[in-house]
Amino acid sequence: MKINSKFISVIITTKNEEDNIENCLRSIIEQSYPRDLIEIIVVDNYSPDRTIEIAHKYADIVDTIGPERNTQRNHGMMNLSSAKYLMWIDADMILSRNLIENSLSFLSNSGHVALYIPEIIVGDDFFSRVRRFERSFYDNTVIDGSRIIRRDVFIQSGGFSKEWQHGPDDWDLDKSIKLIGSIGYLQCHENHPTSILEKLDLYFLLTNQRQSVIFHNESRLSIFKFIQKKAYYATDFGGYINKWGRGDPDIKKQIGISYRFFYVFFENGKWRRVIKRPDLYIYIIFIRSLTGIAYILSKLGLTK
Question: Is the previous residue joined to 168 through a cis bond, with omega within 30 degrees of 0?
Fold first, then answer.
């Protein structure tokens, strides 16, 4: 394989994403960064819907593999990609128009080997507003996950864990990367007006020149599906904890009640946002508590 034939490979993993994949791929096609320097790779998990058909309209490479997302991501990033930098995203994500250009400029002029990117939840219901508020506190913390990685570093790190398929894969990858080099943060300098965020205004998201963010479209995700998904992912926490040790300082924050429920919302002056919207913070705590209960019930075999 000839490496660096393109400067960045964007890998999207999919399963039954016909409602999301076109918006995701269009946001990559319409980047300010030259299209001929972007390699688009879709790795699907045997979707019976139109996901693959739509992907073929935009992607350079479309392949199929399972059983779950870690295998898909490793296949796309290790076996199919050919660029210097790798970006991994989900099908329900939309890239702001100058994201790739600004990200690669940042990485090329810094000593970092990977990059955290601000993420903004898009949706017009109350749960989406809660999730948008919650996610804004995680940027550039141990609860965040890098999205762009130098390919040689990804290979050296061993990629996403092969010991589990759907657990804390982004946290695990970041810890492996930090043994090799540092992870930078692409600062988000401008807050979007709420009126824009509360609608999936695709034209705005695709043409906005000012932001360098990932818009995460959770507009179809109900609180019940969210809790179910999080509880399912948490079933692989045991392997992650055993790998790095329960006493690891990052793991103490990532799974610790004090950090996840309190400190991450108040550190570095973030408490000012909580004071402005205590209702959203209280609802976050409520959702986190329900997720913990759902996880315990699943471990006891009391849920499907």
Answer: no
